[in-house]
User: Fold this.
Amino acid sequence: MLDFIAWYLLVTLLGWLAFPLTWRLFPSLADRGFSLARALGLLLWGYLFWMLASLGVIQNDGGGLLLTFLLVAGLSAWTLWKSLVTRHSPLLDWLRSNRRLVITVEVLFFLAFAAWAFVRASNPNIETAGGEKTMELAFINAILRSPTFPPHDPWLSGYSISYYYSGYVMTAMLAKATSTPGAVAHNLMLSLVFALSFIGAYGILYNLLAARRNRQSSILNRQSSILLPLLGPLFLLFVSNVAGFLEVLHRRGIGWTGQPGDTNIWTALGRLAHSDLMAYNFWTWLDILHLNDPPSLPLGWIPERYIWWWQDSRVVQDYDLAGNFHEIIDEFPAFSYLLGDLHPHILVMPFGLLVLAVALNLFLGGWEGETDLRLYRLPLRLEGFLFATLALGGLAFLNTWDILVGFTLLVGAYVLARVRAAGWTWQRLRDLFAFGLPLGVLAILCYLPFYMGFASQAGGILPNLETPTRGAHVWVMFGTLFIPLLVYLLYLWRGEKRPANWKAGFGLGLGLALILWLLSWLLALLAKLATPEFAANYLEARGFISETLFFVAASARRLEYIASLLTLLALLIPCLAFLSKSGQKGGETDDSSHSTSDLRPSTITLHPITFVLFMLFLGAVLVLTPEFVFLHDLFGNRMNTIFKFYYQAWILWSLAAAFGSVVLIHELRGAWKWAWGIGLGLVLIVGLAFPVFGLPNKTNGFQLPAFRATYEAAVAAGDPTPFSTAASVWTLDGARLFHRQYPDDAAAADWLSTAPFGVVAEAVGGQYGDYARISTYSGLPAVLGWPGHEDQWRGTFDEQRQRGESDVPRLYQTNSWDEALAIIQKYDIRYVVVGTLERNTYRVNEFMFQRYLVPVFQSRDVVIYEVP
Assistant:
């Protein structure tokens, strides 16, 4: 609890210190960036600390943290002073007139932070086997122990981290500033990111709704200004894919039949063990892993299959033309927070929302001014342009994939803002490069030290020829967002009569799909010309004797799964039709200060609907792209591309769906309003099934049964403080399980966490297991940790293999001290760990260590030897 309070107070103080900056940087937003002040403050503090530490100006210690914190405070104080020199401070006036919003955001942040901290306290364990939490904790502890920056790689001594690790720097900063252990900081950071994303989504929807006007009134009046924006975080963080609801139906046995023609599901289930596979039913047609298995008996309503919620992030099923299955990851935010992994795609979310807010501010006309770029003048204030580069570059450092979406959002918002000034002309192409080129270059230069030490497994673009997504699967994945989005587009067309260029919409939408399809086959042709032997083996593995037969089969597969493409076109075509009309006469009808006949380009005020349509369009492109191409990596298929692109599309679509839902609630009348209310209710019932049933499952009923049992036992034993004793079942300490399962290893890691810095030798084995436990929990670098993850982070190279397959085993097993000493000197090893895992993995010659090294720690069977 004390750690939680310390984090809450520190981040809240940071947010209030940063608010004068957000107030100045977001002049076109109704909340002046207040809902994003904490994210901005954390980004700025983290950037200054990381950059100055990387340049050697400060140390990775409390003094460096304090100095950079004071720099943020000083910058904010200077901004505030400039505001206060006038007789009436507009910032203070804004705070007084927006008290309801300020109080609402503060209360929502506290409640969201506390609620998810309680969820994590009910399920805090950082498992040593399974999941990515071990990797994330290794990064956090390594950064806490790194004497200099860039921080050392905890699983590859002699190297710095080759990963987008900015989020872990921020975690370690908050941990160091509040004296929080790394295993506690892991859970607190996940709770903090959840809370920052909650108020960030709330603020973005608030700003979109506040900017929307019709001739009668604003959507946000005094009664609805607090409640309606809550749909933003609801859709982003809680609404889930349809799979959770399907789990309930599956558990109930709905949709199952027995033999062909059998319509009695009870009879069919009764002879389940004696009948053939229960074919010819909805579930086998749907073909989602585990859901195509018969339900267990007796039937019920609550899903009980072991970690059933895990499979809800694997609804897309890929089979190549030979029938081989390829796993695909299609996470969504509710799953990610339930899982509890502190991965970069989670850490980046508040800052991705910050960039989205920057784009919205830019779109609405913020930063009007001029910046001299030597070769030409950019019609934006310098401070806004520089902040946009800093925020955009931070996305790459947080989660490299996100910079693509952030860049497109910012450039698209700028171009659309220029449309307001001059309409659609070829000059907009010049604007795109004039803004995008310096933006991208400076965003990289701002984080140059990161790129200098960064290696990646990415290796270009490959074609997806044979595994398009089934329409059923894309609807299971995004159905809860598709319905409000499609209904909203229909309303814009038929209800609002929004002007649209349908010829351009169909041409651009179909053209984009055609270009991607042609690109995929062009890449295939180039691959065949470059590596004909690989192409021949590829065809042979799938049972084809010619390229023509393969092309026919692949085309037939794409036609069979055409429903997914048609669904995406149903989103793309209206978006493009409406967008292409924006900025033209009659294209914007929201500003009551101009009549429709006077909508010249110079008088147009772009409607926020245009920005929402752009978000919707970008999300559709993200989902469409992996249908034809994917990024080449060690996985060899589109698994990681789907994962990253779908996730970013979910963020954009969820906010667009929330905006559309609010507009429909406000604008529809009579029976249509009731119909949409029922429809939205059904969408929420389906979309919230996953968290409603998943949260109790993952947390064992939020540990309430354990609390009650412990409380009753404490009362029976005469404990004077039974409530406090029982409440100990809740903890934010992610290392609790490690200390219980491996108390001696945990004691060794705890001892090393305060010992002088040095390289650790420990057993090397597979990933997602008990290996690398000492380096993970101590923060010291191991000779080698999880080899598979190192391959993912920097690509495979010979030294990694030599360490794991030769040098470390020889160190433990050799009978020659000279050979062992050569390995120790080669990797500058200071500590050699000999525990149960080392003895089970190698034939350890411990006598040699006892003779030549100094035992500095022992806990039963675990011994740490130090090189003298």
User: Anything to note?
Assistant: The two ends are 42 Å apart (CA to CA). Confidence is low (pLDDT under 50) at residues 259-278, 585-605. The chain has 39 helices and ten strands. Residues 182-211 form the longest helix (30 residues).
